[in-house]
Every structure is written in C-alpha cells, then in structure tokens.
Amino acid sequence: MLTLYGHPNSINVRKVLWLCSELDLPYEREDWGGYGQFRSLDEPAFRALNPVGMIPVIEDGETVVWESNTILRYLAAKAGRTD
Q1: Do residues 55 and 6 make contact, with C-beta atoms less than 8 angstroms apart?
Q2: Are 68 and 17 in contact (CB under 8 A)?
Q3: Which of 42, 16, 67 is nearest to 3 (CA)?
Q4: What pLDDT, on the 0 to 100 scale, is given for residue 82?
C-alpha cells in the first residue's frame, strides 16, 4: 500500500493527493509537518525517509520518493501514464 507523508494544507501534498485521486490509487496518509500541528519533520523516523526534512514523501513498498514533482512523475509512470 502506498503511504503519503504530509498534511493536506501543503500545496505540494495536495498535488500528490490530486494525482492519487485522478489515478484512483489507494493510499494511506500520515500527517507530518505543519509547524507544530502534526508530527515533527525533525523526528528521526521522518529523517530516515527524507534527510532534507520536507514534505511530501511517499513510501511504496521499499521505494521511498520525495519532492512533489518527482513523486508525480513516479506515480504517473507506475500507472503507465504518458500524458
């Protein structure tokens, strides 16, 4: 199952959420970031996923991808989309 790390108030997380919806991809979301509203991006568990400490991040099995546009390209390619 695809896991998305980030909160929906972030425009970059929204891009990923929108694509997941468009591609009808099932996912789980964990809220991270948001200036104290959610889990801290400085926690070692998050920094293990993304040493830069920014959202969004996805975990797809053993594959971890961060940076919103890279995530979008990864998900589109995985779904076989070329448009």
Answers
A1: yes
A2: no
A3: 16
A4: 86
